[in-house]
Design brief:
2 domains; globular; mainly alpha
């Protein structure tokens, strides 16, 4: 009768045989994150003054110090960092300020809203804010059904209430953390070919 080790070895070897395609995971992470970050940075750049006002105002905004500098850093990091992710250039380096940006967003913008990005009262992660949103959601549906074209409005998806929790910022942080440790990936990044050309001998 075969031991567990005898059974494990071929399974382990079979899994190892897939390593030739290990470039796919970091490539897909990069290509997923790039348009999200690019859009976020672009939105800040085209509405720079409004974003500065929101960053700096302590009453209805974030109340951050040096709002012009903070917006410039956040927008530049997101927009230009996204392009570095696309090409796979300096990926481990740019992951650091991008992770910081995600942490700042999670702590200053989303933290007080809990985890969920979309208010879903059926989720075990729902907080009081999300549970209260269920009444708003039902009222909104009722108003649309009575006074709007509800079937047309919901033809591409359900009517929901945004909760704006940390879910997306935390997810992007984890994805960037993975890229920080794995790098841009073999074969499909500028980083790989630069390292192969100039650092391989080390």
């Amino acid at each position: 009768m075969k031991s567990l080790i005898d059974l494990y070895r071929p399974a382990h070897q079979a899994l190892n045989s897939t390593r030739f395609a290990d470039c796919l995971a970091p490539l897909l992470l990069r290509l997923y994150l790039a348009p999200v970050l690019m859009q976020a940075g672009w939105n800040k750049l085209v509405a720079f003054d409004d974003t500065v006002a929101w960053f700096g105002n302590p009453d209805w905004g974030l109340g951050l110090p040096f709002p012009e500098l903070m917006v410039a850093l956040a927008a530049g990091t997101e927009f230009f960092g996204a392009w570095l992710l696309v090409f796979g250039l300096a990926v481990r380096w740019i992951s650091i300020p991008l992770m910081i940006t995600m942490l700042v967003a999670a702590l200053t913008v989303h933290w007080q809203n809990g985890w969920l990005a979309i208010a879903d009262a059926s989720s075990w992660l729902a907080n009081d804010r999300v549970m209260e949103a269920a009444d708003r959601l039902q009222a909104g549906r009722s108003l649309l059904q009575q006074h709007g074209h509800y079937d047309w409005l919901t033809g591409r998806g359900s009517f929901v209430i945004l909760n704006n929790g940390i879910e997306f910022a935390a997810t992007y942080f984890v994805m960037l953390l993975s890229l920080f440790f794995t790098g841009a990936g073999r074969y499909v990044s500028v980083d790989y070919w630069l390292a192969r050309r100039f650092i391989k001998a080390d």
